[in-house]
Write a structure and sequence with these properties.
The complex is a heterodimer. Chain A is an all-alpha fold. Chain A has three helices and no strands. Chain A is 65% helix and 0% strand. The longest helix of chain A is centred in the middle third of the chain and has 34 residues. Chain B is an all-alpha fold. Chain B has three domains: 134 residues; 139 residues; 211 residues, no CATH class. The radius of gyration of chain B is 21 Å and the shape is globular. The chains are: A mainly alpha, B mainly alpha. At the A-B interface, helix 1, helix 2 and helix 3 of A face helix 4, helix 5 and helix 6 of B.
Chain lengths: 122, 494
C-alpha cells in the first residue's frame, strides 16, 4: 500500500513539475520534454492504481491505457519535432512564405541535418 | 437499423484515408494521383454522410443506439453510442465535412498539397465521428488526440512560417490539454474502476474531493482545446493561417468537439457537481470571450482573422448556458435551454464553415483578404458575398437564423432564472457582431460594374452557400425536429 502511494504521489509530482516546466521554458525541445514528463506522471498514477495487493494479479485495464498513452505521446512528440524542424528551416531561409512543402509527420523521412532544434514557440 | 452501423461511421473515413495513401503510392507521380484522390475523397465523404444519416434516422425512430464492439461488455470493452445529442452533432459535422470535401477538390491548385490533404482530412473525420459516438472516457481521449494531431498537421499544410509556428503552438497546447484531461480520467478510474460514461454517471451521486478534482482537471484541459477565454490565445493565428477548407473544419468542427465533450461531462457525468457557483465561473469566462472576441473581430484587418476571433466569441455564447442550466429546475424550461444550446452550436458550425469557405474564395480571387481592400467583391463574386452575408446574419443572430432562436431562449432562460446580467452580455455581443459583419459587407458592396454571373466557381461557392443557408433557413425555420431528436417535447413552450 505504501508503495502504491509512493508511486501515485510521484506521478502527481511529475505531472505538476511537467506543467511548471512547460509554462516557464521557451525552447521547443524543453517544452516537449516537459510534456513527456507530464505524461510520465499520468502513466505513473495509472500504473499505481493497477496494484491490487501482493496476492492478486494487477488490474490489466490501466496497463492497456498506459500502452495506448505511450503510443499517442510518441506520435505527438514526432509530429511536434517535425513541425519544429520545418520552422527551423524556414527561419534559416528567413523568408519566402509560399511554395514550400508541408511538414511530414514522420521525422525519419528526412535526413538529419542539425541536431536538436531550439525553437521559440511562445 | 442494427447498431453495427455505428462502427461504419468511424471505419468508412478511416478506410478512405488508407485508400488515399495507397492511391498516391500506386499512381507514382503526384500529378497523376490527384484526380483519383479527389474521387476517393468524395466517395468516402458521401458514404460517411450516408452512414450518419442512417444512424440519425435510427436514433430518431428508436432512441439511443449502442454497440459493444466485439461483444465485450462495459467495464472492459469499448462501446459506441449514439443518443440525440451525439446524432445532432454528427449530422452537423458530417454535412459541414461533406461541403468542405467538395470545396477541397477545387481548392488545392498544386497536386502535392491535395496529396497531403486527403489522408489527413479523412483521418480527422474518422476522429470526429469517433469522438461524437464514443461512450467511454478513454476512447474519448484517444479520439481527442487523433483529432489534435491531424488538425495541427492540416493547419500547417500551407508550409508558411506563420502557419507552421501557429500550428506547432496549437499542437503543444492541445497536448497539454489532453494530458490534463487524462489525469482526470485516471482519478475517476481510481475512485470508481470504470471508464464508461453511463456507469460513472450512476456511480457519481455523492460528490467527494476526488470527483471535484477530476471535474476541474478535465474541464480545464478541454476548455484549453475549446479555446474558452482566456485559453483562446492559440486559436486566431492557427485558424487564420490554415488553408480555407482546413480553417472551416478547425473553427466549425474541431473546437466544437471539445465543447461537446465538456457539455457531455457536465450533463451526464458531473451533474451532482454542476452547482450554480461552479457554472457561474464558466458563464463568466464565456461572457469575457464574447466581449473580447467580438471586439478583436471588429478590429481585425483580415477577413480570416475576423472569422477566427468571431469563433472565440461564439464559443463564449455556448458557455453562457451553463449557469442557466444549473439554476433551471428539470422540466420543459431546461429542455428548451439544452436544445437552444445545441441549436446555437449547430448554427455556428454551419455559419462559420460557410464564412471560411467563402472567405477562402475571396482570398484566392483577390490575392489577399484585407477587409479594407475588398471593394467590389459583391460584383466579382456575388455568390461568395451572399454566403458571407448569410453566414454573418447567423453570427449576429438575426431572424430567421437558428442562432436567433438560440439567443432568444438564452435570454428568456436568463430572465426566468433571475440572471439578467447575461442578457446584457448577449446584447453587447450581438451589437458587436452586427458591427463586424456589416464592416465586411460595407467594403464588399463598394460601387463597381454589375455582376456578369452569380456563380463564379461552383465547386467553391455551392458548398459555402449551402452551409450558410442551412444555418439560417433550415435551422431557423425548421428547428422543431431538433427537439424531437434530443428527446424533448417538440417546440416546448418557446
Amino acid at each position: 500500500m505504501t508503495a502504491q502511494f509512493l508511486y501515485g504521489g510521484t506521478g502527481m509530482l511529475l505531472f505538476v513539475l511537467g506543467i511548471w516546466s512547460f509554462l516557464v521554458h521557451e525552447p521547443l525541445v524543453r517544452k516537449l520534454i516537459a510534456l513527456n514528463i507530464m505524461g510520465g506522471g499520468v502513466f505513473h498514477v495509472l500504473i499505481a492504481i493497477a496494484y491490487r495487493g501482493d496476492d492478486t494479479a494487477p488490474d490489466p485495464v490501466p496497463h492497456a491505457l498506459v500502452l495506448t498513452g505511450i503510443v499517442v505521446a510518441v506520435s505527438a512528440t514526432a509530429l511536434a519535432l517535425a513541425l519544429g524542424r520545418r520552422l527551423d528551416e524556414l527561419k534559416l531561409r528567413d523568408g519566402p512564405d509560399a511554395d514550400s512543402p508541408a511538414p511530414q509527420a514522420d521525422p525519419s523521412a528526412r535526413p538529419d541535418k542539425r541536431a536538436g532544434g531550439h525553437v521559440d514557440v511562445a | 437499423m442494427s447498431p453495427e452501423v455505428l462502427a461504419f461511421a468511424v471505419a468508412v473515413p478511416l478506410l478512405g484515408a488508407l485508400l488515399a495513401v495507397i492511391a498516391v503510392a500506386r499512381r507514382g507521380s503526384e500529378t497523376a494521383a490527384s484526380p483519383l484522390l479527389n474521387r476517393v475523397g468524395l466517395v468516402t465523404a458521401t458514404l460517411t454522410t450516408l452512414v450518419i444519416a442512417a444512424v440519425t434516422a435510427s436514433v430518431w425512430q428508436r432512441g439511443t443506439l449502442r454497440l459493444e464492439i466485439g461483444g465485450w461488455g462495459a467495464p472492459l470493452g469499448i462501446a459506441l453510442q449514439a443518443d440525440g445529442l451525439s446524432a445532432a452533432m454528427c449530422v452537423m459535422a458530417n454535412l459541414v465535412a461533406l461541403g468542405i470535401s467538395v470545396y477541397a477538390t477545387g481548392y488545392f491548385k498544386s497536386p502535392d498539397k491535395a496529396l497531403q490533404f486527403w489522408p489527413l482530412w479523412l483521418l480527422l473525420w474518422a476522429a470526429l465521428n469517433g469522438l461524437f459516438l464514443a461512450a467511454d472516457l478513454f476512447n474519448l481521449y484517444v479520439m481527442l488526440e487523433l483529432l489534435g494531431l491531424t488538425a495541427a498537421a492540416l493547419g500547417a499544410l500551407t508550409g508558411s512560417r506563420d502557419a507552421v509556428s501557429a500550428n506547432l503552438r496549437y499542437l503543444l497546447v492541445g497536448l497539454l490539454g489532453s494530458m490534463t484531461y487524462l489525469l482526470g480520467v485516471a482519478l475517476l478510474y481510481t475512485a470508481y474502476g470504470s471508464m464508461d460514461i453511463g456507469l460513472l454517471g450512476d456511480a457519481l451521486q455523492t460528490p467527494d474531493p476526488i470527483d471535484a478534482t477530476a471535474l476541474v482537471l478535465m474541464t480545464a484541459g478541454l476548455a484549453l482545446k475549446a479555446a474558452l477565454f482566456p485559453l483562446h490565445f492559440w486559436l486566431p493565428p492557427a485558424h487564420a493561417n490554415a488553408p480555407a477548407p482546413v480553417s472551416a473544419a478547425l473553427s466549425a468542427l474541431v473546437v466544437k468537439a471539445a465543447f461537446y465533450l465538456i457539455l457531455r461531462l457536465w450533463l451526464d457525468l458531473f451533474a451532482p457537481l454542476a452547482t450554480p457557483g461552479a457554472s457561474q465561473v464558466l458563464g463568466l469566462l464565456g461572457a469575457s470571450a464574447i466581449v473580447w472576441g467580438s471586439w478583436r473581430a471588429l478590429r481585425a484587418e483580415r477577413l480570416k482573422l475576423l472569422a477566427a476571433y468571431s469563433t472565440v466569441a461564439q464559443i463564449g455564447y455556448l458557455f453562457l448556458f451553463f449557469p442557466l442550466l444549473a439554476a433551471m429546475p428539470d422540466g420543459p424550461g431546461r429542455d428548451n435551454l439544452i436544445a437552444a444550446l445545441v441549436l446555437m452550436a449547430l448554427s455556428h458550425g454551419f455559419a462559420k464553415s460557410g464564412l471560411f469557405l467563402a472567405a477562402g474564395l475571396v482570398q484566392q480571387h483577390a490575392g489577399h483578404d484585407r477587409i479594407d481592400e475588398l471593394g467590389g467583391t459583391a460584383q466579382t463574386l456575388p455568390a461568395a458575398t451572399f454566403a458571407i452575408a448569410l453566414a454573418g446574419s447567423s453570427l449576429i443572430g438575426l431572424p430567421p437564423s437558428g442562432s436567433f432562436i438560440g439567443k432568444w431562449l438564452l435570454m428568456q432562460g436568463a430572465l426566468e432564472t433571475g440572471q439578467w446580467w447575461w442578457v446584457v452580455v448577449a446584447v453587447i455581443g450581438t451589437l458587436l457582431a452586427g458591427a463586424y459583419v456589416f464592416r465586411v459587407l460595407s467594403h464588399a458592396f463598394g460601387l463597381e460594374p454589375t455582376p456578369i454571373r452569380f456563380i463564379t466557381d461552383a465547386r467553391a461557392e455551392v458548398p459555402a452557400l449551402m452551409l450558410a443557408l442551412i444555418s439560417v433557413a433550415a435551422l431557423g425555420l425548421a428547428a422543431g425536429p431538433l427537439w424531437t431528436l434530443l428527446g424533448f417535447d417538440a417546440g416546448g413552450d418557446a
